[in-house]
Task: structure prediction
Amino acid sequence: TLPFKNKGGVKIDFSTGLVFNRLIDDNFELVHFKNNDSIAPIDSVRIADLPSPKVNISPAVMAHTYLRNAHNINIAFTMGLCYNVINSDLNYLLGGSFLFGSEQRCVLTFGAMVGKRKQLKNSFNEPSYYGALKDKGIGLTDFNNRYGTTLLYNEIIDIKCAVGVSYNLNLSNKFSKGLN
Result:
């Protein structure tokens, strides 16, 4: 028998893999210090970035829809679900993929990741106030009167670019042979 490749029609394949994205929470802390710029030193605070990962690597399950052709490379519309390991939340992926191979496929996906992340509360983003808080600091009493004793965050829905690598193992022939 001579094998031949089918073409034509729409096909849906599923794959699992990893998605790299920048859907990462803001991470700051308040640093307390004595400000000696005035006549009498005053207790002050300043905001500082905490070290955090630059890239979020999420396990994902994806569905790829494409027009079947006789080549070993297909271009697909892709939707997926990803688990954000940093904030333990479910994210959504929408984009396009290149599927390489005929039965067992390596998949390269590009798209947008949609999910929740923490962002520093808007009141801290006032340019003049945030600039002072970030650079030289402000009086602790002023800060406590305005915001309390902690930094506040909003949970927002954000969209970031994503790149994924996954693998599609076509087991349909193995299952159908076992059923005959």
The CA atoms of residues 34 and 43 lie 5 Å apart. Helices lie at 127-134, 140-147, 172-179. Confidence is low (pLDDT under 50) at residues 175-180. The two ends are 19 Å apart (CA to CA).
